Amino acid sequence: MGRIDLMIELEGGRPWRGETKRPTTRSPSRIQYTSHNVRPANGERMADLHKDYELFHSAKNGNFGYFGMVLSAISAAEQASSGDILRRASAAGNTYMHVAAKHGNADIVTYIGKEDASVLLYKNDDADTPLHLAAKLETS
For residue 67, what is the enclosing H or E element? Predict the structure, then answer.
């Protein structure tokens, strides 16, 4: 049952046969992901915002040179590929590409797309892909 179907049932006064209360937090364990809401697979992990802060910050501010330098440093420290790191998502489901697209940083979006194109399909908790966020930026 989709979000719109649920709203129609609730507005129509018919009892809904599912969960009666909406979760109060966005805990990743409470969110069910489908093929339409792609999330990092089991082998991939959520971003640690404290450790990955510099990478998120440079994606937001558009500092392309610094983004590449921090990505290389994290990759070397964790012995992980840059693609593995770029697939990480925040608690709100935003990948580094979501952040860069939301703030109009085309150089970083292009770089991430070349490193791992699958990130283009990831949806955050608002069901937005990086392309959706970029389009919203253009219309605002």
Answer: helix 64-78
